[in-house]
Amino acid sequence: MVTATETPLAWDAFLSEDYQSEGMREQVTRWMRTDWKELRRNLALSGWVVTVDPHWHSPGSCVYWSEQTHFDRETNQRVGDGVWTPTRPLPANTVSLIAAYLKKGFRFRPPLEGVEADVFFSVEPAILLEAQGKDIGQQSSRLPQFWCARHGSGRYGFASWQMYLDHCNRRMEAVEEKAPPEVLKRLSEAAYACLQHNKTFPNDAMAKDHYRRSMRRPGRAQHVTIEQMRNLPAASGDRRP
Predict the structure, then answer these.
(1) For 185, phi and psi rounded to 5 degrees?
(2) What's the pLDDT tens digit per position in 143-182?
(3) Domain boundaries, the chain
(4) pTM across the whole model
């Protein structure tokens, strides 16, 4: 059994014997430059942003990676073991097929290769990573800086703090990510501040009105207390008197 190693495997590590000759390999590389590039574009338009090339087996077919799991009796759920193994060659020639495999938790590259997020689901407008071989670091300003992993096998990425907050508030989820220093500094300088909604208030009355409006939302509305809004920690770690 081949398992993930600390040495990244090349895109052709699982290439079919039928495509090992120079002429046949050219068919695969041509497919990568044309069809695969278009697939990445359409995947991004559907929310799936792919930052690496798969391990191709043939044009339109690749080897995915799957994490081994076991059944946890305490939680009655299957949990990952941290061991990633390659699948058999599977289709990778349509957006719907690729998305189905990604939703199941498959990846194009194992985490042990040092790829923190080779595929992520973006809920902002599509991020298009155009050029094959282009340094992904050049795209870092548009890649997610904040994450939410509370949706089954889905992992949502957000390129800005406000996009992350909008997601949390829309789904009535607690804010778990750490706010950027400049956000904490701005909020800490106000008399009252709401980290959850990224808003500041000059007095008690306006803070209370914001709290009441937020708690009137239907569903599982939740919000920090007025006291927590008044005592929001400053970026330096101090608290207002």
Answers:
(1) -65, -45
(2) 667 888 776 545 677 777 887 888 788 778 888 898 999 9
(3) 17-119, 179-241
(4) 0.50
